[in-house]
């Protein structure tokens, strides 16, 4: 499965993970890039699939994947389907609710230290905005180089909680 935060001017971040029968999750790869279109990420996922001989499960993406492109009028979900990827838009939730979803699942997550090193840093360095003059924190996260990986991880948590996991034989998330 994958969980995404998408961007062009900003980074696009992708977590690759497995949902296990025991209710835990293995995060096996983190990928981030900037200034690339969807085709670049599809090529990355296709190569990863070939290299690892895997089948993809769900692809959790934020609500802005439903946006239509100004030049073509085609929404991004349709474009991803044309590339062979059926994306699952996670329910739009408040930042705090997403952070709570992450907190509730984090103890169930295992990370490949090497292949997820930058993504783990994104989670470690995710923080609230701080006003140095007033010496107060705002209720919103600081948007910086670390926020993309953390936002993609939020898509995982909201997706996992919102859609559940079906491990019955033939279920869509059987691991």
Please describe what this structure looks like.
It is a single chain. The protein is built from 5 helices and 8 strands; from the N terminus they run βββαβαβαβαββα. The longest helix is centred in the C-terminal third of the chain and has 17 residues, at 147-163. Helix 2 links the parallel strand 4 and strand 5. It has 175 residues and is an alpha/beta fold. It has helices at 38-52, 76-82, 95-106, 117-125, 147-163, and strands at residues 2-5, 11-19, 25-34, 59-61, 88-89, 109-111, 128-131, 136-141. The model is unreliable at 167-175 (pLDDT under 50). Helix 3 (95-106) crosses helix 5 (147-163) and helix 4 packs across helix 5. The N and C termini lie close together (10 Å). The strands form 2 sheets. Strands 5-4-1-2-3-6 form a 6-stranded mixed sheet.
Search tags:
34% helix; six-stranded mixed β-sheet; alpha/beta; 23% strand
Task: Kindly summarize this structure in a few lines.
This protein is an alpha/beta fold. The protein is built from five helices and eight strands, in the order βββαβαβαβαββα. Helix content is 34%, strand content 23%.
Helices and strands in order, then pairings?
Elements: E1 2-5, E2 11-19, E3 25-34, H1 38-52, E4 59-61, H2 76-82, E5 88-89, H3 95-106, E6 109-111, H4 117-125, E7 128-131, E8 136-141, H5 147-163
Parallel strand pairs: 1-4, 3-6, 4-5
Antiparallel strand pairs: 1-2, 2-3, 7-8
Large-scale geometry: globular
**Number of DSSP strand runs:** 8
**Sheet with most strands: strand arrangement:** 5-4-1-2-3-6
Report how far the terminal alpha carbons are from each other. 10 Å
Mean pLDDT: 87
The sequence of SSEs as H and E is EEEHEHEHEHEEH
Helix content: 25-40%
What structural class should be given to the helix and strand makeup?
alpha/beta
Please, how many helices? 5
Low-pLDDT stretches: 167-175
> Compute the gyration radius: what is it?
16 Å
Query: Regarding quaternary structure, how should these chains be classified?
Result: single chain
| Largest β-sheet summary | 6 strands, mixed
Instruction: State which percent range the strand residues make up.
Output: 15-25%
């Amino acid at each position: 499965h994958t969980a995404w935060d998408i961007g062009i001017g900003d980074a696009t971040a992708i977590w690759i993970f497995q949902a296990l029968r025991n209710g835990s999750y293995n995060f096996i790869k983190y990928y981030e890039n900037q200034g690339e279109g969807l085709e670049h990420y599809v090529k990355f996922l296709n190569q990863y699939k070939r290299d690892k001989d895997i089948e993809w499960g769900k692809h959790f993406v934020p609500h802005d994947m439903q946006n239509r492109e100004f030049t073509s009028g085609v929404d991004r979900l349709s474009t991803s389907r044309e590339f062979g990827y059926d994306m699952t838009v996670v329910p739009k939730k408040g930042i705090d609710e997403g952070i709570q979803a992450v907190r509730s699942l984090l103890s169930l997550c295992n990370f490949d230290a090497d292949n997820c090193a930058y993504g783990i840093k994104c989670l470690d360095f995710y923080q609230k905005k701080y006003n140095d003059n007033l010496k107060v924190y705002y209720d919103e996260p600081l948007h910086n180089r670390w926020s993309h990986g953390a936002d993609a991880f939020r898509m995982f948590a909201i997706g996992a909680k919102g859609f559940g996991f079906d491990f019955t034989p033939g279920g869509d998330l059987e691991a």
